[in-house]
Design goal:
This protein is α+β, with helices and mostly antiparallel strands. About 20% of the residues lie in helices and about 45% in strands.
C-alpha cells in the first residue's frame, strides 16, 4: 500500500508539471535606452531611462520595455502590438502595408494617403573606418540621417559581427517595427547596408525646431529560456483595431 501511495504521488507530480507551459530556448538581448527631456507643441515629456528586453527564436520574436511592447509571430504571419496600460492588443498581418489598412470607402482613407506622402523621408547610411569597443565587441561606425518635411534624425550607429546572434532574425523585428512608422518605413532598405547588429547608437532628433537626444546601448546578448508568456498576448487583454494614425501623432 505504501508503494502504491508513492507511485500515485509521482503520477500526480507529472500531471501537475504537464500543466506548466514549457519555456522556449531563445536569444535574449537587454538594452539600456536613455531619452532626453523634450517639449513639442506645449506637451512636455521628461527624460527617461528604460531597459528593453528582446527575445529571438526562429519563428517568434518579442520586445518589451521602453513603451514598445510587441510580438512578431512568423509562424502566423502576424504582429501583435500590446498596450499594457489599457490591457488591450492589436493584430497586424504581415507584411505591413499602412496604405491597405484603410478601405477605399473609409472617410479617413484620403487623409491617410496624404499623410503617408507628407511623411515620406530620405535616409542615408554611410560606413566609417572608425571602430570602438562595446561590451567587449569590436563595433564599426555608421553615420545615418533621415529627413522629411517635419523632422530630421542624425545618428551614429555602432554595429558588430562578433555577437552571438542571427542578424537576419534581429532585422525581421527591427524592420516590422519600422514599417509601422511612415517616417521610417523608407529607411528600411538603407539600414540593410549595416553589417551585423547595432549594439550602440546615439541619435539627435529634431521635430518642429525642437531637438532631443536618444541613446541605446546593448548590455547583454545571451542564450536563455524565454518565459512561456513571452510570445503570447496576456490573458484578459481586449482586442482592438490598430490605429495607423497613432504613429503620426
Amino acid at each position: 500500500m505504501r508503494g502504491s501511495k508513492g507511485l500515485f504521488a509521482i503520477v500526480i507530480l507529472f500531471a501537475l508539471l504537464a500543466l506548466v507551459p514549457p519555456a522556449t530556448a531563445a536569444t535574449r538581448i537587454r538594452q539600456h535606452v536613455h531619452s532626453d527631456a523634450m517639449s513639442i507643441m506645449g506637451q512636455n515629456q521628461p527624460a527617461s531611462d528604460d531597459t528593453v528586453t528582446i527575445w529571438l527564436t526562429k519563428d517568434r520574436l518579442a520586445i518589451s520595455g521602453g513603451g514598445s511592447d510587441a510580438i512578431v509571430r512568423l509562424d502566423l504571419n502576424q504582429l501583435f502590438i500590446l498596450d499594457h496600460e489599457k490591457k488591450s492588443y492589436s493584430v497586424i498581418d504581415l507584411p505591413i502595408d499602412l496604405a491597405k489598412m484603410f478601405p477605399a470607402d473609409d472617410p479617413n482613407a484620403a487623409m491617410m494617403t496624404k499623410m503617408l506622402e507628407m511623411m515620406k523621408s530620405t535616409t542615408t547610411v554611410t560606413a566609417s573606418p572608425e571602430t570602438r569597443q562595446v561590451r567587449g565587441w569590436t563595433a564599426h561606425r555608421y553615420d545615418m540621417e533621415t529627413k522629411n518635411d517635419f523632422m530630421t534624425v542624425k545618428g551614429v550607429l555602432w554595429a558588430t559581427t562578433e555577437a552571438q546572434i542571427d542578424p537576419a532574425l534581429y532585422r525581421v523585428l527591427q524592420e516590422n517595427l519600422m514599417a509601422l512608422n511612415p517616417a521610417l518605413r523608407d529607411a528600411i532598405s538603407s539600414f540593410r547596408k549595416i553589417e551585423g547588429v547595432v549594439v550602440a547608437q546615439e541619435q539627435s532628433i529634431t521635430v518642429m525646431g525642437q531637438t532631443h537626444a536618444v541613446s541605446t546601448e546593448t548590455l547583454e546578448i545571451s542564450e536563455a529560456d524565454a518565459p512561456s508568456e513571452t510570445f503570447r498576448v496576456p490573458q484578459g487583454y481586449a482586442k482592438k483595431a490598430f490605429d495607423p494614425m497613432s504613429n503620426m501623432r
